[in-house]
Amino acid sequence: MEETVKKLMLACACLLAATAVAGCGSNDSTTASSTETTTETTTTDTTTTVAEEPTVVNIVVVNAAPQGGIVRQTVNKGDRVVLVVKSDVADEIHLHGYDLSRDVTAGGTARLPFTATLPGRFEVELESRGVQIADLTVNG
Prior knowledge:
Elements: H1 2-51, E1 55-62, E2 65-66, E3 71-76, E4 80-87, E5 91-95, E6 100-104, E7 108-115, E8 120-126, E9 131-139
Parallel strand pairs: 1-4, 3-9
Antiparallel strand pairs: 1-2, 4-7, 5-6, 5-8, 8-9
């Protein structure tokens, strides 16, 4: 019986070694291909990301009014835009024309991302107070 156990252990060791060697060869080939693909993808993604950075429009609301006056921003049709509103009052931030809105809490920040698809001039306001906080122009 001891001889059978030794043979079985030897067979398992050989199988394990063969699997490890076969796996190593396979992984090296796969790793090389994956590395090349990843490098190309990363380069492409990095270039694309840089080209598509959104225009961030920062608006700070103090005492229910835009600090420094109404924020004016011009973008081009097709641009990605993010309105970032930091407010000391709770209200709804509303982008007219696009009919987009977000609630902002007192002392909080609201982000309103969108793609500028409609050319024109659009008001951003504290909706319930009726106070304009920004003026966005989208060039067509």
